[in-house]
Amino acid sequence: MENQKDAPKGLGALLNKKDTIIAIILTLIIAFLWFETTKFEKVPDLFANNIPPEMFPQILLIIILGMVLIIPFEHIFLKRSGKNIDSSRKNPVPMPTIVTMIILSTIIASSQILGAALTIIAVSIFLPIYWGERRLKVLIPYIIGFPLFVIVLFNIILGVHFEPGLLDLIKN
């Protein structure tokens, strides 16, 4: 149990400083992304039988913002269950986490060239292999099944068509 002398007072008791900074940064990113959605092309009323193109990303941004706004107060919920949110933060971020972020960032940065389908396939191949999955009977169905599921879900079921990227060059 925390000593009363060590307990934060005032705003520090309500908001976790590190989490508040993260929440502010994430909120600024969400604001920027929201602004970007306002630049989407407007669909003529004749074709606007569904939601406009900017609404789906905006709905996602609102949901993410709702979760972000909880972050500064998370320590209060964890403290009730006897956990200290800052105890594990004293350790540095593990190297596999950093390498995973680098792999994902590199693949996503290449997505304009690769296109959505090849980006999903690349993530499905490189991340499990980096994480140490070597069982082919698990790896092959995942590498084939996951991208296929995502592509079928979005292209066929939801009618959201991805940018073809390199696949468009191969087709032509």
- Provide the structure class: mainly alpha
- The number of helical segments is 9
Run of helices and strands: HHHHHHHHH
Which regions are unreliable across 5 or more consecutive residues at pLDDT < 50? 1-5
Q: Give the strand tally.
A: 0
Radius of gyration: 22 Å
Q: Describe the global form.
A: globular
Record keyword descriptors for this entry:
single chain
Tell me briefly what this model is.
The protein has nine helices and no strands. The chain has helices at 11-14, 17-37, 55-68, 74-80, 95-109, 111-114, 116-130, 136-157, 166-171. Helix 2 (17-37) packs antiparallel against helix 3, helix 5 (95-109) runs antiparallel to helix 7 and helix 7 (116-130) packs antiparallel against helix 8.
Break the fold down into its secondary structure elements and pairings.
Layout: H1 11-14, H2 17-37, H3 55-68, H4 74-80, H5 95-109, H6 111-114, H7 116-130, H8 136-157, H9 166-171
What does this structure look like?
The chain is mainly α. Helices cover 63% and strands 0% of the residues. It has helices spanning 11-14, 17-37, 55-68, 74-80, 95-109, 111-114, 116-130, 136-157, 166-171. It contains 9 helices and no strands. Mean pLDDT is 83; it is low at 1-5. It is globular.
